Amino acid sequence: MTNCHSVRPLLPARAEELTVFEARIRAEHVAACARCATESAAYSRLGQALAVMANLEVEPADGTLERVLVAIGRRRTGVTDPRVLAAAGSAGALVATVVVARAVRQRRQTRPPVRHLPLPRRLRLPNLPVPTPALARAK
Amino acid sequence: MEVDRELVEAAQAGDRWALEELVRRTHRSVYTCALRLVGNPDDAADVTQDVYLRVVRKLGGFRHEASFSTWLNRVTTNVAMSTLKRRTRRFAVEGAAVPADARDPAPEPAERAEAVALARRLERLVGELPEGQRQVLVLRDIYGQSTEEVANAMGLTPGAVKVRLFRARERLKADLEAAEGGQVVALAGRRRATGRRS
Question: Which DSSP string do the residues of B169-193 spell out, in sequence order?
Fold first, then answer.
């Protein structure tokens, strides 16, 4: 029988991690050595508990889900760079300012005048003789 | 983490609601995996966001050859490892990786109740392992990745992965016995004495 010292490195390993030879050595030794059998069983139990951990979930901090949803929403629009988003925000603000300014101006232009004053009547000029140019007078 | 294939396919087809539902159903699992790998809640939240950005980009290429959860775990592993490579600051591990509340995903069979209880206690001890050992143990023993997959993800040789894995298991068992007065051995001994059900 192999001694405990040489088998000890094999005890934490899963069966599929050992060669056929190593697996046989371990099995033979564990069958004959109560101490190593206990160790081997402890590792086996540890392995089972670790596998169960895959199904245990940790609750993320508040806002993590919302942050992810916002991020993927931006990704879907193709824009994720914060500088691009800042530039887009500035451009949007500028466009909004222009639109508002135009609307205000248009409103002012279409506002009805306060009072409709009657147009002044056209003055009729008397029929006066047309002045003769100086050159014609010289002839 | 259970995800319907129909939901994944709808998300692949561009259904915005399906994509958001996919995120809602899986984000805790992704966050948990990230937390176990990076060992820090803030980094885990960053990794979670980056994982889903990558998922949005790569989802069209997912061919259902593996389960969606397996694929998502691989994406999480890759993003977490990239984050760790970029990370320049170091974090203390004391308590950082310990989840505030671990939830049961579903009622467990009676014979697994002990393993579930033990798994809850292990969460803290796993978080206290050295970073390299912790990552190997998390990927191999918790998420069931092969030694080669772990080696690829971490940029190690398979031999180096095995060495770290051996040390991590050995230390974890010793820490657990120290914390609980040899309960792992006692439980195992009791199980052996009563006969293991197959």
Answer: HHHHHHHHHHHHTSHHHHHHHHHHH
Of A57, A68, A72, which has the smallest distance from its Cβ to B29's Cβ?
A: A57
Q: Tell me how far apart the alpha carbons of residues B77 and B83 are, in angstroms, rounded to a whole number.
A: 10
Find the length of chain A.
139
Distance set, CA B43 to CA A10, A71, A80, B63 (Å): 35, 16, 19, 29
- B103 φ/ψ angles, rounded to the nearest 5 degrees: -110, 145
> What does the alpha-carbon distance between residue B162 and residue B146 come to, in Å, rounded to a whole number?
11
* Digit-coded pLDDT (tens) for A15-42: 889 999 999 999 999 999 999 999 999 9
Give the nearest partner residue to B189 out of A38, A68, A75, using CB atoms.
A38
Nearest chain B residue (CA) to A80: B53
Q: Is a pLDDT exceeding 60 seen at residue B89?
A: no
Q: Supply the ipTM of this predicted assembly.
A: 0.73
Query: What predicted TM-score, i.e. pTM, was given to this entire model?
Result: 0.68
